[in-house]
Amino acid sequence: MKSSNPYIGRFAPSPSGPLHFGSLVCALGSYLDAQSHGGQWLLRMEDLDPPREEPGAATRILNSLEAHGLHWHGPVVWQSKRHALYEETLEQLRKKELLYPCYCSRSQIRENGGHDNLKCRVKIADSGACALRLQCAGGEEAFIDIWRGKQCQPIREDTILKRRDGLHAYQLAVVVDDIAQGITQVVRGADLLDTTGAQIRLFHILGAKLPTFGHLPLVMGPGGRQKLSKQNHAPAIDDNKAAVNLCTALGFLGFHVSQALEQGSTEHILNWATARWQRHQIDNHDRQLH
Ligand code: GLU
């Protein structure tokens, strides 16, 4: 289904570990949604947090995507090379007097029962390390999620845009890059649903047009209690079993897949799925991997 509106989607992995089955499902969902709308699918490597990164993981992720036939448009965007852009945005917000240093440690915040922004805002200088917060708390942000429908999220905290350790925060980089790359559709895992309201608030403050957001159900690990994630050491997907992995992932995305399809090439499987993809085939239930 082609439309006259340009569609620019993206997959934005963090290289804290190799691609696991849960991230394959997200990559595939956002790929199929983009392809079936005649859109572009961009790849952004969110390598912003060196202490949490695993050496070699970024290359392994790119190789796994290629092995599964998930080819992206244009060059990979590396967040580690975009610090100047994030600083420019911080400067813009500083000029509007929307940024303030926050010296609270996590334990202080816990003791206060939350972040005490008044205390931070009046503090003039401190020798300790500080985070930079965006003055943005208050009210709520509403949006229509492709799969979850109407969402209304209160904005309780002033978002941290630069961390105490000097690193740019995910919330800053993700919004700045989605704007800079002209992303029109953000399709990603439901673990990021709760961060969306604060991101929308930042889009508004920066005067940018909002993309559409869609959050895919999560793949839960054996036992069904935890989502598969790099933090839980989910195993890397086996690139030598790309066709089987794709077919299993298609099952998670609501397709009825015949065993014969698994014998096809990754290209054939992806074409088959692109031609049949319908958003309403996905429900909101997280599913367990057996
Ligand atoms: N880099 C984030 C992650 O791997 C995803 C960011 C996004 O899709 O907005 O969890």
Characterize the structure shown.
- The chain has one domain: 3-Layer(aba) Sandwich (Rossmann fold), CATH 3.40.50.
- 33% of the residues lie in helices and 17% in strands.
- The chain is built from 9 helices and 12 strands.
- The radius of gyration is 20 Å and the shape is globular.
- The two termini are 33 Å apart.
Quaternary state reads single chain
The strand count comes to 12
Low-confidence stretches: none
| Strand order in space, largest sheet | 1-2-3
Largest sheet: 3 strands, parallel
> How is the CATH topology named?
Rossmann fold
How many H/I helices? 9
What is the class in the CATH system?
Alpha Beta
Give the integer mean of the pLDDT values. 91
Q: What's the overall geometry?
A: globular
Could you give me the name of the CATH homologous superfamily?
HUPs
CATH architecture: 3-Layer(aba) Sandwich
- Separation, N- and C-terminal Cα atoms: 33 Å
Helix/strand-derived category reads: alpha/beta
Ions and ligands: glutamic acid
Amount of beta strand: 15-25%
Helix content: 25-40%
Overall tally of domains: 1
Rg from alpha-carbon coordinates: 20 Å
Order of helices and strands: EHEHEHEHHEEEEHEHEEHHE
List the helices and strands and how they pair.
Elements: E1 8-11, H1 21-36, E2 40-45, H2 57-67, E3 77-78, H3 83-95, E4 99-102, H4 106-112, H5 117-122, E5 131-134, E6 140-145, E7 149-154, E8 160-162, H6 170-180, E9 185-189, H7 196-205, E10 212-216, E11 219-220, H8 242-252, H9 266-276, E12 287-288
Parallel strand pairs: 1-2, 2-3, 9-10, 11-12
Antiparallel strand pairs: 4-5, 5-8, 6-7
